[in-house]
Structures
1.
Amino acid sequence: MAILPVRIYGDPALRTKARPIPSIDDTIRKLAEDMRETMRAYHGVGLAANQVGVLQRILVVDVPLENEQHAQFTLINPKIESKSGNEEGEEGCLSIPGIFENVKRALQIRVTALDEQGKPVDLVAGGYLARAIQHEIDHLDGVLFIDRLSLLKRQMLRRALDSLAKGEIPDGHEPQAPEGAF
């Protein structure tokens, strides 16, 4: 297992749409394992391949549930089949450290994908798990959570985002996102 460097805002990989994975082999399984290790090392709950510079449609999530349980999934070529309800909640991103804003997302989703063995996954997710999966699928499409903010909010964040794009840590921001970022 390897901890991969997480790409930070301004890196072109974060704005590039990932390609579908035509077949699942040991290379893809190793990538999934490395992504899980990286997500844990950065105290995240989700990670998309774009965030580690790999432009393939794979994501991992490890979302805490009640009773110290976790929803852990590797989704390859995920596609949201349906959405219902709306909910606004705070999001952060390992690729945009130190910035947290409220984002409106579907409350429940149905997603189809493949697992690491190539078996079909048909998952209905709600709440925080649905939010995490939507956030990561956005990454695979080259969309960042800040793109879902109002123009005014984005303008207010411009200075901090410009600093990140230059490789600088903005004043008052941590180099790693606190636990719970995607």
2.
Amino acid sequence: MPNNFYPAANAVFGKIVRVASEEVTLQIILCKCLPVLLYGLESCPLNASDTRSINFVINFVLMKLFKTSGIESVKYCQMIFKFQLPSMRLNRQESKFMIN
């Protein structure tokens, strides 16, 4: 699942992390990398372990972005930037998929 996500995220970090703000980097990761991680998952049933794995991937990238190792700091940054975890986004997309 995250096999294609990590190269995409590392490319973003390698190119812009020194020049762009955290907010800009986060938006680029959301627009360019997160779809790679979530592609097609709204049509697959995911168990709790799968959901935690997807959230871990993003939390790990946010730890790298905000230069912290504490999950509480990451959660605080998520709140400040109004960032939704992939599991929440996936639930919203899954609902749309089931309706259509």
3.
Amino acid sequence: MKIMIALLTLVIIFHFTVIIRLIPYEVVWAGKLKSVNEMYAFEAASIAINAFIIALLLLKAKHIKQNTSNKILDALLWLFVVLFAFNTVGNLMAETLFEKLFFTPLTLLSCILIWVIVRKDKKEKK
């Protein structure tokens, strides 16, 4: 859980570096962004999604006190397992070598870590 939260935090920091243009936006989003405005929209969405996943993980670990159903949390986390799996395939087909080499392993690792988190919780309940 801690590793996944750390990875997501680093990804958020990375997206902020794209927004402030320390990293050129041409190397992200499969090299398909056509304008700065499009980059802002995509980067903002990515930051929001990653923050949402962190919130889900904190809820799952009970670091945030909430009466959220574990079934709902698990369903949302399974959704992200699938999303990261598809994203891994997409990164393999990216036009930029940077994305292929850096983000393919990252999304694959994210897929596996969230899968382990969801599965571990189910095993502990049995």
